[in-house]
Design brief:
- The chain is α/β, with parallel strands linked by helices.
- It folds into two domains: 3-139 and 268-300, Response regulator (Rossmann fold, 3-Layer(aba) Sandwich); 141-267, Rossmann fold, CATH 3.40.50.2300.
- The chain has helices at residues 3-20, 28-31, 47-63, 76-88, 101-113, 128-131, 141-154, 170-182, 199-212, 224-238, 251-259, 270-287, 309-317; strands at 36-40, 66-70, 93-96, 118-122, 136-138, 159-164, 186-191, 218-221, 243-247, 264-267, 297-298, 302-304.
- The protein has a six-stranded parallel sheet with strand order 2-1-3-4-5-11, with helices on both faces.
- The two termini are 29 Å apart.
- The relative contact order is 0.15.
């Protein structure tokens, strides 16, 4: 299926889901509901994941269901054990991110065996079906990278550094892979594992890499905090003419886009990811719906640039972007 057809299918699915959302009190089944929906991610509770969680909480409140949200701070073993424990804890629907499929494969298989509705969110679009999920909610990371490559081409760049802040995260690897597929110049992956836990050290490592090769004229950061708090300081310290693009948003990254020091941010709309995960699981439990048609429901990539950043900043302030 082409990207345009997938995007259309995703839009139809999202519209269908939105049309069926009703206040819990309006439905006897919903009013008496004791549904427990579990959302277990690899999230760290930071800028990105706090907004994702707000979306899930808002949907649960709207639909009158119990929500158990837990992040694992990029600890795959912890995420797997949380998922496994969820069955005994009464999870009736599961949404989970999949940065490391091998780590959680056995855990999610328990849900599939018991017929518990299951969706993947954020990361894992390529393995969602094989794990037994009825759909994936998020962006295709390869497509996100491809679209970034096209943006960098328009800037006339020749050599891009792609720092990966979680070495085992297949979604981050896919972003760099997609970038390589469309960017006409050279892309060099860079091991920045652990960058989010020590942004000062990450700044030094990225600065050293950029200093060692003067042909770099661009950096594709895979996280907004890495972009604003590690890549940008490194570029400023070098006083280099290096363009920066990033995936996801933060107040600092948006301010930098407004100032022109970061060129763009890819918005995968994480509030919608959390919200739709709860909605789709609710519909599966309450009405027997399994939306998506076996395909991913895309929430991105969208782009935030200097042209639309002011509006996005206002929505970030409201906590929904």
């Amino acid at each position: 299926m082409s990207f345009k057809k997938k995007a259309l299918a995703s839009a139809i699915a999202l519209a269908a889901a939105g049309a069926m959302i009703i206040p819990a009190a309006a439905s006897p089944a919903a009013a008496a509901s004791t549904y427990k929906i579990c959302v277990y991610t690899h999230g760290d509770g930071g800028t990105f994941w706090s907004v994702f969680q707000k979306g899930a909480v808002a949907a649960a409140k709207k639909l009158g269901v119990k929500l158990d949200y837990q992040g694992s701070s990029n600890d795959a073993a912890k995420q797997a054990s949380t998922i496994s424990a969820g069955i005994a804890a009464g999870c009736q629907g599961l949404a989970t991110s999949v940065p490391d499929p091998a780590a959680i494969k056995t855990a999610v298989a328990g849900y599939v065996k018991k017929g518990i509705p299951f969706v993947t969110v954020n990361s894992g679009s390529d393995v969602s079906q094989s794990l037994g999920a009825f759909t994936h909610i998020g962006q295709d990371e390869t497509i996100a990278g491809q679209q970034a490559g096209l943006r960098f081409n328009k800037m006339g760049l020749k050599h891009i550094l792609c720092p990966i802040q979680e070495a085992a995260n297949i979604g981050l690897q896919a972003r760099c892979k997609g970038l390589k597929q469309t960017f006409k110049g050279k892309v060099t992956n860079f091991n920045a594992d652990g960058a989010l836990s020590d942004l000062t050290a990450a700044t030094q490592k990225i600065q050293a890499a950029l200093s060692a090769d003067k042909t770099y004229d661009g950096v594709f950061a895979l996280n907004a905090d890495v972009a604003a708090k590690a890549v940008l300081p490194a570029v400023k310290a070098l006083k280099a003419k290096i363009k920066i693009g990033t995936v996801d948003m933060s107040p600092e990254a948006l301010a930098d886009i407004k100032a022109g020091t970061i060129s763009f941010a890819i918005d995968q709309q994480q509030y919608a990811q959390g919200y739709m995960a709860v909605v789709l699981l609710y519909l599966a439990l309450n009405n027997g719906n399994q939306l998506g048609g076996g395909q991913a429901i895309y929430t991105g990539p969208g782009f935030v640039t200097k042209d639309n950043v002011a509006k996005v900043i206002s929505l970030v302030a409201a906590g929904t972007r």
